[in-house]
Amino acid sequence: DTNEGMVVTAAELSEVSLVHTPAFSEAVVSQVAASAEATTEAAPSEEDVNMENETPEVETAEVVEASETVEAAAPAKQYITVGAPRALEGMTAGRFARAQLEAQAGDRDAQMIVQAALADNTTTTAAGLIPTRFLTEVISVLDNSRPFVDSISREALPDAGMDFKIPRVTQKPSVAQQAAEGDEVSSTAFELDYLTVDVKTYGGGQRISRQLIERSDPAFLDRLIVEMAAQYAQATDLFAFGVATSGAGTSDGADIYQSIVKGIADSSSVMRFTPSHIVVPASGSGAITLEKLLQQVDGSDRPLFAAAQPQNAAGNITQGSTNGTVAGLQLVVDHNLGTGNTAARVYPSAAVTFYESAGAPVQVSVQDVSTLEVEVAVYGYVAAAAKYPTAVRTLTVTP
Questions:
Q1: Confidence of residue 64 (pLDDT cuts 50, 70, 90)
Q2: How far apart are CA 283 and CA 342, in angstroms?
């Protein structure tokens, strides 16, 4: 039964020594040859008879050296204990199962066999069976808001043309007290010119293979349209802000609150009513940002604009959000401004008008059957008119 151990049929020996119990049962020393030559047996002589009572001399025996290669004719079952785990040839399922049982019972030899027979399998050796999963979530800052555009007046874009003109009064007629009855009344020419507003096109496009459109998950095309629409919103919001502030006036104060108050007064003198909004970046190097507004405190170190109680008269920015009022103005925090627009602005919503084509942004796609590709784009026509440029006030702080 070879299931009880390993059978060794041959081995190369580097050294042979005479031991009491050899490694192989057939390797025992079975015969010793004397060094003296053999003699023919004869009848005892008288001299031999006289020497029977004497102790004979025994010549030293010589051990016959074993051959360097000992091969067992009928080898017995032998158990080999290995010093380190190694691969075992000829291991069958039955032998391995038996070795497992003996190993659990504490047999050291069996434990070494089991340890040697087990191969290491990891995610590296079986890399082809380890799939990579992609979630449907896409990491991206998706912001399609237009805070500044939403804070100014809006109009539909004219249905034709790449520019349009808005009449503008340059000289108002005069009215004055009549000096005396029969005298001529005041008369000043009523003069007008026009403001030319250019229509701008904002859009973006991609060329996509049909395979990517039809085999992607999550759907590449759907995500692409959403991302381009968000970029369209941010770009057009920044465009409107640039038009509104290109001819803005400047209002300065010794601190943040005084600068805001000065901006309110300067703006109201242009259109003869109080401005409605103040737009600030979230943070940055500007003198007035959302961060700096939240840092403002009164003489008792109480928040000036973000008070939890309505005891402060300066304003009330809702804690945990960008909503609220500052000195009676509606607060607008616009993340689209970026680092290039660091100053706060005070303005009435009627000072600037934003025009946009209906349904913008519009999605359009064209298929190229020769390459199985699709060209996809989103676009829109926009315009912005700064009707009262100096009613928009850029706020500065000079301590």
A1: very low
A2: 8
Residues 6 or more apart whose Cβ sits within 8 Å of residue 392 = 244, 245, 247, 248, 249, 267, 345, 346, 347, 351, 352, 386
Given a contact cutoff of 8 angstroms between Cβ atoms, the answer to whether 78 and 7 are in contact is yes
Contacts 24+ apart (CB under 8 A), 358-361: 358/156, 358/157, 360/232, 361/202, 361/203, 361/228, 361/229, 361/232
pLDDT in tens, 225-253: 999 999 999 999 999 999 999 999 999 99
pLDDT value, residue 127: 85
pTM, two decimal places? 0.68
Q: Are strands 277-280 and 329-333 parallel, antiparallel or unpaired?
A: parallel
Contact present, 6 and 80 (Cβ < 8 Å) = yes
Q: Of 79, 90, 85, nearest to 119 (Cα)? A: 85
Give φ, ψ of 259 to 5 degrees. Answer: -65, -40
d(CA 33, CA 38): 11
Measured distance CA(95)–CA(342) in Å, rounded? 80
